[in-house]
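worker-03 picked up job from queue 'complexes'. Input manifest follows; two sequence lines, order preserved.
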Amino acid sequence: MAFAVHFGVTMLACWLTAQVLAASTWTWRSPRIAILCWQAVGLALGLSAMGLPMALGLGLYDRPTGSALLALAADLSHDTLPVGLGAPQLAAVGVGFGIGAVLLTTTVRSILGTVRAQRRHRDLLTLVARRDPTVPGALVLDHPSAAAYCLPGVKPRVVVSAGTLDLLDRAELEAVLTHERAHADERHDLVLLPFTALCRALPWFRWVREAHERVALLVEMRADDKAREVHAEAPLAGALRRFAAAGNRVTPAGALGMGDRDLDVRVQRLLVADRPPRLIGAAALAVATTLVSLPISLFLS
Amino acid sequence: MTRLGDLERAVMDVLWDVVPGTSDGVTVREVADALDGRELAYTTVMTVLDRLAGKGMVQREREGRAWRYRAAASREAHIAQLMLDALDLGGSRDAALVRFARSVTGTEADVLRAALGDEAGPGATGSTGGRAVGRGDTGLTDRVDAPRTDRAGRPTPADEAADR
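worker-03 finished. Artifact:
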């Protein structure tokens, strides 16, 4: 029973950590550490969600979940189940495996869907995007709307629309391209992938979606940081402002959508040059490590 | 860009720019003739057209012993589709593009939708790939409308669910 409590407490701690992470603003100053924390919370939560029903079913063995599972497997193969371990307990163990299977299959399906969509997108780009001497290394889409994005992969593509070329000046465009290359180099698509998969597996949990949004924003901030290392803050902030302004042409004043609020936050943090909070960062990493090691230790012992 | 990608692009350029929209397609020979400067073998052009048909970029019909090929959708429709993905209006998170920022007004969303709408029928199927086929026109309209509710304020969970 103690082990089930252990998993339950881990899940509660994960939920609390997620609440704190979502509410704090230090994460904006060290996005990389914050992303690591979110990943730790996600992993710990997934493992605990599997472990909790398993531990409930295996309470009779009074051993950590990993060795209890091995003992159960041995007993099942010899057909010598201990007294008191019947259908309900086996069902609980099954539920644990079921949760694991669902998480795994959604992730795989998410990966497959992504690979398909990206191949399609890449094929189309080959046919209709053009190279432009003013933006070396990037592809240009002839469309008046403003968009700048990165198609991730082994051979990533940075794409800007003709609308973006009109919208931004030289320095701003360079900053945006560096930002996009940072996404490609650091494989931010892989960072987002498990969270996208979780959103699919658990669409009815609002805070899973919020976690996804948070991580997506942090990934942008991380790429902003790479761009500000190479260029100054001003062109990047300028580019963000222009994007925000272009999008707001027909939006009534004061009615900001999600994307616009995120743009605002990103501009604001570029204007204040704060150093990353080392102490909070270290503490957050310690909490994250503890969260992950709690369920892993039970599965491995 | 790979050599093959380069060839595919050249062939599509012929189908888009050289062939009049009213024509009921061209034969491999005609495409090869239009690509005269590149001195491509007939079989090479046939292979490229075959690949493009496999990807749903061109449609073909048998006429006698030869196939006639034409573009499944216009270049503009393909660009519109890419922009929908890029601006996150595609309704699918599958593309997993990482954006710098997006900027789209309601009017622009209408224009994008119109670009796809022009291709209604077989063309639209070709331009949007498997994902939009099952959803039909209503699906497309929903997808393009969603960001407007988005813009009107913080999206509610219901809005987001519809968006997904």
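worker-03 released lock.
Confidence is low (pLDDT under 50) at residues 119-164 of chain B.
Chain B touches chain A through 48 residues (CB under 8 Å).
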